Amino acid sequence: MKETLYVILITILKTALYFGILMLHVAYATYAERKIIGHIQLRLGPMVVGPHGLLQPIADIIKLIFKEDIIPSNVDKKIFTIAPLISLTAALSTFAVIPVSPQWFIADINVGILYVLGILGLGTYGIIFAGWSSNSKYAFLGGLRSVAQMISYEIALAMSIVGVIIMAESFNFIEIVNRQAQYPLGMFLFPQIIGYFVFLVAMLAETNRVPFDLPEAETELVAGYFVEYSGIRFSLFYLAEYLAMFCMSALATICFWGGWTIPPLLVKIFPFLSFVPPVLWFILKVYLHMFLFFWFRGTLPRYRYDQLMAIGWKVLIPLALLNIVLTSLIKYYL
Amino acid sequence: MTDNTKELIINLGPQHPATHGVLRLILEVEGEIIKKCIPHIGYLHRGVEKLSEDLTYVQVLPLTDRLDYLSSMINNVGFCLAIEKLMGINVPERAKFIRTMMAEMARICSHLLWIATHALDIGAMTVFLYAMRDREKLLEMFEMVTGARLTVSYPRIGGVRCDINDKFLEELEKFIEEFPSKVEEYETLIDRNRVWLKRTKGVGVITAEEAINWGLTGPTLRGSGVYYDVRKFFPYDAYDKVEFEVPVGKNGDVYDRYKCRMLEFRQSAKIIKQCIEKLPTGPILAEEAPRIRMPSSPLKINKEDIQFEIYLMEKNIEDFIKKFTEVYASVEAPRGELGFYIVCDESAKPYRMRVRAPSFVHAGALSRLCEGSLIADVIANIGSIDIVLGECDR
Question: CA-CA distance, B11 to B24, in Å (whole number)?
Fold first, then answer.
């Protein structure tokens, strides 16, 4: 009995700590995005609050919390209030199983990948509910687009990871990372390059980022599914989007970039690298992917709805299937 | 389940980030496909045409700034041309070259804002700020000469307001020197981008015949492959003394209209360069131009004198006109053919002024361009016909 209580207490503490750190990362990811895009676009980004605008995210959070929470009179109130919570909960729950280092995780379950994919899929409900309950045509169209997009790209996303699962012979994240460490490059990136490409594109679509940000296309649907939201509820959607970005980056890091391990080849050349703590490697790789998100946003225009569908069904899914076949054949004969 | 469905009607605008001001479109959509598109205009109506009936020809000039506020210089030139035709004033050579130069600067200015917003509408955010950076330099040059950045009121009936100096020419030469490389910079961001090509090629196609029937002009018409440019067909100012080409598209889609304007950037730069080289010396305002003789020192200004001078000027114009007549003059504005049709009686004020605004005509063609396309294409189409509602609603 005492031991059970102890485990529960530790888990709660761990979750709280994990949550706090994650929120700080999300806050500063918005800062990083604004700074990076600013510099791409010959601007400085936030500069006023604090040195180099470092306190800007905190000012933003305070502003969003104290803003009036407007609920339009014609909305379906219950669903309208629940929708952002669903999105946020789904995005947050994924981090329960994502390990940051061999020692640092909240839960280590055997079907980690399946869990993450399943929970992320639930996040779509938040968006559909928001779009439907807002009783606004723009939000409705945004919601519809998002459903179609999420459903078609989830397939490609899941299929792109199958190659990794075949190679690692496990659904467990830690097992996948350990298996990658046996390769000289310490990552599945090169044997799974097709899978990684599919994953990367599907990752952008899953998180509604440029060039696939159709559900929230500013210039077409104004803000898409969350056009009627304001204040803290709006920021919950925003938070969910960034958490999903972090989750996807972490997934890419674990499945394709060797997680917290250092490429053995690199250690042979620079032995001192093995003293760098694994958490740092993990964060570095995650932020590399985050930077990709920002970089795309600064460079690319937006796809059209039908083109997005065409890419999903006619390019990504066949490619992912091809990857699965190739990987299995190689695995079987070698 | 009964098959009882109806189209969703979406109200796009007038407060919408991508309708370039206050255009309002009523879209009847089936899913994402547009069945019907009805443009509504008039949200920026200020009654410029009616207002001008109560003002003298000289006073109307600043109102024309407010038509297409992105290329006010060209509007001024268009209006001045009409009045000069009416009064039979011969504009001095130097003024003609300065006007041509300034008009091309305004064209670059306007096209820069067009590429900025067009790219932003399609989702490429970065081009917006790159184009704004270069537009800023041009606006500063306008400020240097005219004292204003947007609504310049620089050309005058019979010439221009003030002369340009060497410092301005130096700045302009420097800008023109590096401008083509800047255009290439925008093109690297969008023209070689698969996403951009997919969004623009084959979208909003209008054939040459249809484009003519809809009354399209400017790059929107030339994108469909029709060779028509007021600067070539009815040369005004110094356009017959400079060499330039008129870029023409082929397919009449958003991409060809985009390409036409991108090529016009380079032609405009070429024209400015020739203007700087060939700039003659001499007066900048015609002798017979209506003007007010100001006292030499501002201290001597007295209200009665000024009023008398204004009276003299009005008398001067009336002496020229004398009869009930009408006049039409048009210029090639960045958006298309901008025409001023003026009916005048014996007074110094127009009896009726009508502006043939390209934006007005193009906004009408939106319903044809958008039908059967997707919602996202509406935005691309609005961008590609490049309308300014100030001119459309007047």
Answer: 7
Give the start-end residues of each E strand in chain A: none
Q: Which one of A204, A302, A308, A315 would you mutate to disrupt binding with B, by most B Cβ within 10 Å of its Cβ?
A: A302
CB pairs under 8 A between A and B: 82
User: What mean pLDDT is predicted for residues B296-323?
Assistant: 72
**Domain B11-15+17-27+39-393 belongs to what topology?**
Cytochrome-c3 Hydrogenase; chain B (1.10.645)
CA angle B228, B232, B233 (to 5 degrees): 70
What per-residue confidence (pLDDT) applies to B301? 67
Give A11's contacts (C-beta < 8 A, 6+ positions apart).
A106, A107
Q: Which residue from B17, B126, B193 is facing A218, i.e. has the nearest CB? A: B17
Structure tokens at B296: 């030499």
Question: Nearest-CA neighbor of B126 among A230, A262, A296, A40?
Answer: A40
What pLDDT, in 10s, does the model give residues B265-286? Answer: 889 998 998 888 888 888 888 8
Q: Is a pLDDT exceeding 60 seen at residue B123? A: yes
pLDDT in tens, A231-240: 888 888 888 8
CA separation for the pair B377, A305 (Å, rounded): 10
Domain limits, chain A: 1-59, 67-333
Nearest to B386 by CA among B333, B335, B331: B335
Amino acid identity of residue A191, one-letter, is: P
Contact (Cβ atoms closer than 8 angstroms) between residue A211 and residue A302: yes
CB contact under 8 A, A42 and B377: no
Specify the range with the lowest mean pLDDT, choosing from A237-246, B150-159, B288-297.
B288-297
pLDDT score recorded for residue B5:
73
**Number of Cβ within a 10 Å radius of residue A267:** 15
Mean of the per-residue pLDDT values for chain A?
85
Residues 96 to 125 of B: which have CB under 8 A from any A CB?
A: 119-125
Instruction: Determine contact, residues B111/B372, Cβ cutoff 8 Å.
Output: no
CB atoms B374 and A141 under 8 Å: no
Tokens for A89? 């909960």
Nearest to B375 by CA among B12, B28, B34, B117: B34
B166-222 residue pLDDT tens = 888 888 888 988 888 888 888 888 888 888 888 888 888 888 888 899 888 888 888
Which residues, listed in sequence order, are joined to residue B340 by a DSSP beta bridge? B329, B355
Q: Is the pLDDT of residue B1 over 60?
A: no
